[in-house]
Model the fold of this input.
Amino acid sequence: QVQLVESGGGLVQPGGSLRLSCAGSGINFRINTMGWYRQAPGKQRELVATITSDRSTTYADVVKGRFTISRDNAKNMVYLQMNSLKPEDTAVYYCSAAPSRWNRPQNWGQGTQVTVSS
Done:
């Protein structure tokens, strides 16, 4: 049974930082392309960042220079370090897993809420 479990969301002031974590199980973690997506109220789910098995990364333009995705294959974990947070970063953040960089995500976590507000 595939499970992706996110943690680390919460309420933070503008300019603050949060680190999201995602624990994966039931998949061949080290070969999967892992990703973070987000969905704000009334908007479609959008890509935030991905990291491949060889640690190549991609970022949405709106988060480049502020967010960093990383992975620890020994622990089956993927992380999203978010700095300089803005109110427009408020969303539910989802962890994803795809069999390779050429596939769409096939597995999703349940999501963790990030709220950026003063």
Q: What stands out?
A: The chain is about 0% helix and 50% strand.
